[in-house]
């Protein structure tokens, strides 16, 4: 019965080709989400560096420390992954060959930024997290220049 219904529907419906520049033709791109995620990476990195382990052997203090440490690491890694995802969305769905002609270092900028996302997941290194922010700002500036705008790069923290 179901087979007959489906066959009937497909015979009556002609297939139409649909074209889009991305997975969904929304056309809405903004590097702001990239900046927010990268800022969270930097913030969690700073918090991890500033986190002081207990000087005692008190198990409750160590449990609280370990809980806080592991939460900060989880957030840092999750946000580094999110930063990479957002950069790659811009790279694969927004930026076009014409942008590479205008910004010949775009490929290298994206590559280095995504490599820094991975490094920030693996390490607790403030210099790497700050460098990631610098690359995110560079991507932000290129993105808005492609739209003929010069939107400010304003950090939340």
Question: Could you explain how this protein is built, in words?
Answer:
With 157 residues, the protein is mostly helical. It has a domain at 38-146: Four Helix Bundle (Hemerythrin (Met), subunit A) (Up-down Bundle), CATH 1.20.120. Helices cover 70% and strands 0% of the residues. The protein has 6 helices and no strands. It is extended. The termini are far apart. Mean pLDDT is 89; it is low at 16-21.
Helix-strand layout with pairing:
Blueprint: H1 2-12, H2 32-50, H3 59-94, H4 97-102, H5 106-122, H6 126-146
Mean pLDDT reading: 89
By CATH, the architecture of the domain at 38-146 is named: Up-down Bundle
Question: Strand share of the residues?
Answer: under 5%
Rounded to an integer, what's the Rg over CA atoms? Answer: 22 Å
Straight-line distance between termini: 61 Å
- The third-level CATH topology of the domain at 38-146 is Four Helix Bundle (Hemerythrin (Met), subunit A)
Number-wise, the strands total 0
- List unreliable stretches of 5+ residues: 16-21
Order of helices and strands: HHHHHH
> What composes the largest sheet?
none
Query: What class, by secondary structure content?
Result: mainly alpha
């Amino acid at each position: 019965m179901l087979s007959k219904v489906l066959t009937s529907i497909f015979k009556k419906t002609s297939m139409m080709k649909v074209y889009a520049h991305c997975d969904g033709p929304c056309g809405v791109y903004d590097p702001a989400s990239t900046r927010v995620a990268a800022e969270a990476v930097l913030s969690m990195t700073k918090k991890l560096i500033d986190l002081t382990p207990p000087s005692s052997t008190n198990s409750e203090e160590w449990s609280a420390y370990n809980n806080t440490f592991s939460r900060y690491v989880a957030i840092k890694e999750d946000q580094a992954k999110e930063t990479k995802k957002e950069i790659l969305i811009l790279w694969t769905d927004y930026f076009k060959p014409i942008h590479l002609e205008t910004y010949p270092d775009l490929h290298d900028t994206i590559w280095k930024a995504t490599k820094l996302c991975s490094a920030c997941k693996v390490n607790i290194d403030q210099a790497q997290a700050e460098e990631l922010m610098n690359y995110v700002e560079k991507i932000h500036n290129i993105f808005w220049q492609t739209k003929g705008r010069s939107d400010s790069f304003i950090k939340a923290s």
